């Protein structure tokens, strides 16, 4: 069996560089290529059992997300896995359904199975990271932060809410409602505060009944939109704080006999399988895959001994496509 020294000699690098490559530490792309090509040529395989005993942890990362059926989290998970695979780590995907008890069970499993670290989008601000943190395992919060002192990567959600609402105002809509996710969740709060900031600044104020909380799923968006349309003065446009609720809102409009092309809709997040003309819905595109990749990079850095101060990385969203000027007629 080939040794690390033979790989180093063939690649023209030091044994330390070979070690850095297979431990996921920062190495130039050229040196990574040389080392991996040499390893493949020699049939070299890192001794994962010895590495696990030395580190007292596996080369497995736990990824806890609220809803794998949401394309946002699917893309986020892909970003985590892509980056983990580059460093020869595997990912165990755990779907929490935003259920704190289910989340806690997965965290306990991650601790008992000596997983190398955890990336999670917390189910609530009362997430219990005690078991995993007490073992010294690194944790990165993604999309939502935690009260624990851990690294985090998230989106500027308030700016996303501002962008979605501004696009509707710029298109001529004035009675703009908001379908937000469950109260108390960080992303919900930030996005609807962005909506409130714009409707207040643009002079229309916050209409009583125009803010509706719902679950993050299609049925929640449908029920909230139906309730908005039943108001004495219904809105002429709506911001939804995630993509699946926007689909539900569209379904409610169609069922009520209202053309989505005559009603302003802006969604924070990309709508899967859009069959309407692209200009019908303003989509604030979230960098989900980049979010996951960034979180995985931060976690791998900690696993490999990074001791720099805790970091919170904030990514920006993009609005696309712009909505042409228009006015709803209800």
TrEMBL record:
Family matches, as Gene3D superfamilies: 3.40.50.2300, lambda repressor-like DNA-binding domains (1.10.260.40)
Originating gene: lacI_9
Keyword Transcription among UniProt keywords: yes
Pfam families: LacI, Peripla_BP_1
Keyword Nucleotide-binding: no
HTH lacI-type domain sequence ranges: 2-55
Organism: Acrocarpospora corrugata
CDD domains found in the cross-reference section: HTH_LacI (cd01392), PBP1_LacI_sugar_binding-like (cd06267)
GO molecular function list: DNA-binding transcription factor activity; transcription cis-regulatory region binding
SMART domains: HTH_LACI
Alphabetical keyword list: DNA-binding, Transcription, Transcription regulation
Protein name per its UniProtKB record: LacI family transcriptional regulator
């Amino acid at each position: 069996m080939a040794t690390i020294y033979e790989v180093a000699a063939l690649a023209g690098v030091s044994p330390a560089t070979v070690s850095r490559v297979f431990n996921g530490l920062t190495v130039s792309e050229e040196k990574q290529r040389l080392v991996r090509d040499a390893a493949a040529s020699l049939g070299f395989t890192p001794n994962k059992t010895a590495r696990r005993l030395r580190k007292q942890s596996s080369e497995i990362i736990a990824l806890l997300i609220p809803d794998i059926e949401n394309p946002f989290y699917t893309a986020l998970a892909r970003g985590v896995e892509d980056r983990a695979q580059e460093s020869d780590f595997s990912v165990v995907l755990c779907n929490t359904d935003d259920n704190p008890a289910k989340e806690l069970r997965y965290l306990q499993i991650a601790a008992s199975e000596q997983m190398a670290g955890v990336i999670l989008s917390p189910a609530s601000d009362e997430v219990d990271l005690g078991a995993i943190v007490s073992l010294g395992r690194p944790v990165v919060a993604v999309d939502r932060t935690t009260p624990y002192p851990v690294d985090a990567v998230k989106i500027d959600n308030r700016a996303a809410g501002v962008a979605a609402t501004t696009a509707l105002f710029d298109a001529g809509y004035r009675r703009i409602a908001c379908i937000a996710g469950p109260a108390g969740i960080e992303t919900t709060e930030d996005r609807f505060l962005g909506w409130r900031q714009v409707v207040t600044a643009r002079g229309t104020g916050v209409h009583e009944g125009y803010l509706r909380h719902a679950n993050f799923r299609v049925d929640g968006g449908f029920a909230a939109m139906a309730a908005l349309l039943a108001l004495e003065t219904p809105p002429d446009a709506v911001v939804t704080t995630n993509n699946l609720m926007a689909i539900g809102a569209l379904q409610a409009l169609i069922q009520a006999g209202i053309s989505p092309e005559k009603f302003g809709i802006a969604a924070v997040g990309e709508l899967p399988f859009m069959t309407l003309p692209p200009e019908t819905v303003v989509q604030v595109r979230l960098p989900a895959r980049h979010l996951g990749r960034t979180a995985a990079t931060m976690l791998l850095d900690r696993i490999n001994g990074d001791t720099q101060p805790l970091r919170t990385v904030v990514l920006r969203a993009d609005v696309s496509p712009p909505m042409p000027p228009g006015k709803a007629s209800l």
